């Protein structure tokens, strides 16, 4: 699926979402970030809670630009073995 990054949609994802932490480092509220990204607050909440089925690559690019971070700051890989323990 070109242009989309699948992040999973179950209780045991190997990809953890670090958007909330990155957003708080920049002292932005969910509403403030949503405004800068031209997104709804509900979409920000969905991503932060790990309920998004996918994140479009262009959205990830905008998030990184606004928060001055890298995709690795937002999407953190944790092997399933580490999650299960």
SSE topology:
Layout: E1 4-6, E2 15-17, H1 19-25, H2 30-37, H3 41-48, E3 54-56, H4 57-67, H5 71-74, E4 75-77, H6 80-84
Antiparallel strand pairs: 1-3, 2-4
Helix pairs in contact: 2-3
Structure description:
With 85 residues, this protein is an alpha+beta fold. It has a single domain (4-84), classed as Orthogonal Bundle (434 Repressor (Amino-terminal Domain)). It has six helices and four strands; from the N terminus they run ββαααβααβα. It has helices at 19-25, 30-37, 41-48, 57-67, 71-74, 80-84, and strands spanning 4-6, 15-17, 54-56, 75-77. The strands form two sheets. Strands 1-3 form a two-stranded antiparallel sheet. A two-stranded antiparallel sheet has the order 2-4. The longest helix is centred in the C-terminal third of the chain and has 11 residues, at 57-67. The N and C termini lie far apart (31 Å). The model has no long low-confidence stretch (mean pLDDT 85).
Defining key terms:
single chain, 85 residues, alpha+beta, 434 Repressor (Amino-terminal Domain), two-stranded antiparallel sheet, 6 helices, 51% helix
């Amino acid at each position: 699926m070109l242009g989309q990054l699948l992040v999973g949609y179950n209780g045991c994802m190997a990809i953890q979402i670090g958007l909330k932490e990155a957003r708080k480092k920049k002292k932005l509220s969910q509403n403030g970030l949503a405004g800068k990204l031209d997104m709804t607050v509900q979409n920000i909440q969905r991503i932060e809670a790990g309920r998004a089925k996918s994140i479009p690559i262009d959205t990830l690019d905008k998030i990184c630009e606004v928060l001055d971070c890298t995709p690795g700051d937002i999407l953190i890989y944790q092997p399933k073995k580490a999650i299960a323990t």
